[in-house]
Design goal:
The protein is of the alpha/beta class. It is built from 10 helices and 11 strands. Strands 1-11-8-7-5-6 form a 6-stranded parallel sheet. It has a 3-stranded parallel sheet with strand order 3-2-4, with helices on both faces. Strands 9-10 form a two-stranded antiparallel ribbon. The longest helix is centred in the last third of the chain and has 22 residues. It binds NADP nicotinamide-adenine-dinucleotide phosphate. The site of NADP nicotinamide-adenine-dinucleotide phosphate has 26 residues, from helix 10. NADP nicotinamide-adenine-dinucleotide phosphate binds next to helix 10.
């Protein structure tokens, strides 16, 4: 029997607990989201993050710059936010316009305020097997979801399709530290389905409909990170849910699987950074 993993329910459960914790704080954490340009998808993501923070009682601010802002002004702003003691967490919404060097911008965020866990220092901790200030949100959300459904990764073969810095790469390290055997595939992988078929757990983070029924073995756990709109404007994932679902033991839906867990992790990370500033 297939279990459909409910990311919304787990998000609600985690955020209810977080709200009770936040209600007891006299001073609340502050999350600042920096958005450059007016990419419609980014605007929706940023507004959803603010709405969620507001509902929990986390102070939040969106700083929206026009698309033609210079890298220098952006870096100056990040420097100001780093030095502002009232700011707990900084998030720069990606993607950035082409004329801005993404690495320079992320690298400018203080690791102690890096709520996405994307700075070279935090990723360096992760790859060295040490604990970063916080773990990147989507990989963290995926591990929370696996945990909720008592899916132990130790000794399992986990195949990740996608090697981005925000999903595939950090996730591979987090799984390795939990003693999974990890294979990462990407657009140059030959005969992708030969590899995915060997997975006990398959995690797809591509952004295209790519995983079909013949890509998995019976009873595989399938985590679908991908989100895109199909030709009819419907939100879809990488996995053909209808044909793949019945062959799996556990599967995440899109929407309602990994997406809600990413935003929950962002809120958890904001509070973790806040607690760490007091612990230091
Ligand atoms: P990305 O940076 O574009 O990376 C996509 C990855 O997919 C790349 O590693 C690429 O390989 C690989 N790929 C592309 N075509 C492939 C193919 N035919 N076969 C195998 N691999 C292929 O994307 P991302 O930022 O990681 O996001 C991936 C997807 O997840 C997107 O749909 C995004 O919207 C979604 N996402 C969802 C959440 C959430 O909360 N649910 C969070 C983050 C991202 P190369 O490296 O060789 O180019």
């Amino acid at each position: 029997m297939t279990v459909v993993m409910d990311g919304k329910a787990l998000r609600d459960k985690l955020l209810e607990k977080l709200k009770l914790k936040l209600d007891k704080f006299e001073v609340k954490p502050t999350l600042v989201v920096v958005l450059v340009g007016d990419n419609p998808a980014s605007k929706i993501y940023v507004n959803n993050k603010k709405k969620m923070a507001d509902e929990l009682g986390i102070n939040s601010e969106i700083i929206n710059y026009p698309a033609d802002i210079s890298e220098e002004i952006l870096l100056d702003k990040i420097n100001d936010l780093n030095n502002d003691d009232s700011v707990t967490a900084i998030l720069v919404q990606l993607p950035l316009p082409k004329h801005i060097n993404k690495f320079n911008v992320i690298n400018a965020i203080s690791p102690e305020k890096d709520v996405d866990g994307f700075t070279p220092k935090n990723l360096g901790f992760l790859f060295a097997g040490e604990e970063p200030y916080v773990y990147p949100c989507t990989p963290k959300g995926i591990l929370l979801l696996l945990d909720e459904y008592h899916i132990d990764v130790e000794g399992k073969h986990v195949v990740i399709v996608g090697r981005s810095n925000i999903v595939g790469k950090p996730l591979s390290q987090m799984l390795l530290s939990k003693n999974a055997t990890v294979t990462i595939c990407h657009s140059h992988t030959k005969d992708l389905s030969d590899t995915t078929k060997t997975a006990d757990i398959l995690i797809s983070a591509v952004g295209k409909k790519i995983i079909e029924e013949n890509f998995i073995k019976q009873n595989c756990v399938v985590i679908d990170v991908g989100i895109f709109k199909d030709e009819n404007g419907k939100t879809r994932g990488d996995v053909n849910f209808e044909s793949v679902g019945p062959k799996t033991s556990f599967i995440t839906p899109v929407p309602g699987g990994v997406g809600p867990m990413t935003i929950a992790s962002l809120m958890l990370n904001t509070v973790e950074l806040f607690e760490k500033t007091f612990a230091e």
